[in-house]
Design goal:
Layout: H1 2-30, E1 48-50, H2 65-73, E2 78-85, E3 91-93, H3 102-106, H4 119-128, E4 133-137, H5 142-148, E5 155-159, H6 162-171, E6 174-178, H7 180-183, H8 187-191, H9 202-211, E7 216-220, H10 228-236, E8 240-244, H11 255-262, E9 269-272, H12 276-286
Parallel strand pairs: 1-9, 2-4, 4-5, 5-6, 6-7, 7-8, 8-9
Antiparallel strand pairs: 2-3
Length: 289
């Protein structure tokens, strides 16, 4: 009898060890929030890009740390920053190129209270927010961004020439094809000193986008008018169109709400200043679970 019990002892030991391992893994999974980024419990974030970091205190275009933090707290995970160059050729986040050095730019609070960002602080913010995606505007050099911003898998560059688009693809950066490459003329491109390209036929544009495996395009929402069939076809092919909003409000409605209610058949989403709509949509979905 004692011999039998001795034979059973290793089996008990193995079962005890297996039970301990299961309990350990379960407890680690529940307690890994300090190291693992929380997975979004919603899909609405995919439809919103925080325009220039997002609106803060009713102010747009700050491209500031505080704007990014506020937009993130409302559920946003895609953030557009205007990247421009200082007089000493350093990248900073500002809608218009600053007529000053990087040190001067970083020493001055935006609107007297918001923290400016250079590439070092941009990298730090995205390091601390590992589920966040950066969309660049203004800057036209994929190679430079590739060299300076390390998170290539969380990077989308809005680009304004096919050469730049091809370079981004070569580097493994996802390009967002800007409206001037689709429609030939663009007020935004002209304001940046980019001359119109010879317009291409719609069928040719579609073919180019498909052949280059373009995932993203960006345009003024006013371009939807008259191009509904094209944009619907592109969306069906999986090409994600994000529209920026110039007119605020639209027909008496908050601009973001109007796009959400009436224009989502033609786009993946929008560059949003006000992220309250996103927060409301998320809260509405989560409350049902």
């Amino acid at each position: 009898m004692n011999h039998f019990l001795k034979q059973k002892q290793p089996l008990k030991t193995i079962l005890f060890l297996l039970f301990t391992i299961v309990i350990f893994i379960t407890s680690c999974t529940k307690d890994c929030s300090h190291t693992c980024p929380e997975e979004p419990k919603h899909e609405y974030w995919k439809h919103f890009i925080a325009h220039a970091g997002g609106e803060i205190d009713g102010i747009i275009y700050t491209n500031s740390v505080e704007a990014l933090d506020l937009s993130y707290s409302k559920g946003c995970r895609i953030f557009e920053l205007d990247l421009t160059l200082t007089t000493d050729d350093k990248i900073v986040a500002k809608h218009d190129p600053p007529e000053m050095s990087e040190d001067e730019f970083m020493s001055q609070l935006i609107e007297g209270k918001y923290t400016p960002m250079n590439m070092e602080s941009i990298i730090l913010w995205f390091t601390n927010h590992p589920d966040a995606i950066l969309v660049t505007d203004k800057i036209k050099d994929p190679q430079r961004i590739y060299n300076e911003f390390p998170f290539h898998d969380r990077l989308i560059m809005e680009l304004f020439s096919w050469n730049a688009v091809d370079k981004a693809i070569q580097l493994g950066i996802k390009p967002m094809v800007s409206e001037n490459l689709i429609f030939g003329k663009s007020e935004k491109a002209m304001a940046m000193g980019i001359m119109p390209e010879a317009p291409k036929k719609i069928t040719e544009i579609e073919q180019i986008l498909i052949e280059k495996k373009i995932e993203y395009i960006g345009m003024n929402r006013k371009c939807i008018l008259g191009n509904e069939d094209l944009l619907r076809r592109l969306k069906e092919k999986g090409i994600k169109n994000y529209v920026w909003i110039i007119q605020k409000p639209i027909y008496g409605q908050p601009a973001e709400q109007y796009v959400w209610n009436y224009e989502m058949n033609f786009c993946q989403g929008m560059y949003a200043d006000d992220l309250d709509l996103l927060a409301t949509l998320i809260a509405g979905q989560l409350s049902k679970k």
